[in-house]
Amino acid sequence: GQQVMQIPQYQHVQEGEDFTTYCNSSTTLSNIQWYKQRPGGHPVFLIQLVKSGEVKKQKRLTFQFGEAKKNSSLHITATQTTDVGTYFCAQRGGATNKLIFGTGTLLAVQP
Amino acid sequence: DGGITQSPKYLFRKEGQNVTLSCEQNLNHDAMYWYRQDPGQGLRLIYYSQIVNDFQKGDIAEGYSVSREKKESFPLTVTSAQKNPTAFYLCASSIETGAHFNTEAFFGQGTRLTVV
Question: Which of A33, A54, B48, B62 yields a CA-CA distance of 20 to 30 A from A90?
């Protein structure tokens, strides 16, 4: 099935360290969305990127869309235990513009 | 209070039985989605519907069926043909008409189905 690849699959960091997850597509994306799913919870929308090379910030989170619009990254500066969860990128694909999610990156933060 | 509601939160069924998961939204969203999530896995698309009385298969539709008779409702039936039905099922909705074609998805709380 069609999925967007994310790396790494899992990351364990000490509180205060930085964290980055990458989302890669073989095709050009019209836009990319990022979601966070807390353990036991449901995905919650974080942000959408549309323009080539776009960079957006939300406090300690920095989102970037690649120049070729084939990849994206989410960087968290100085992680906190509240950042724990799985981060997904998502793209709209196909003729029907259906929403397809990446494989996700599980972030564990040790206090 | 607007939102998307899935029920029940936990569901247990015996092998060989069909089971229907409920998903209701009062956000007036056009599109609704069903995803399956297995432990440590991503979200895989089962079915989606962008308009009433129409729906499309996702990547893993085998063993599942849906209906979209009303805009607010998109129930998912897990049939006995689904070989590994135990999973976390998430329903989502989004606006997908006119200028709002690339909007975010709102998720329900999910239903954790266990088949024994």
Answer: B62
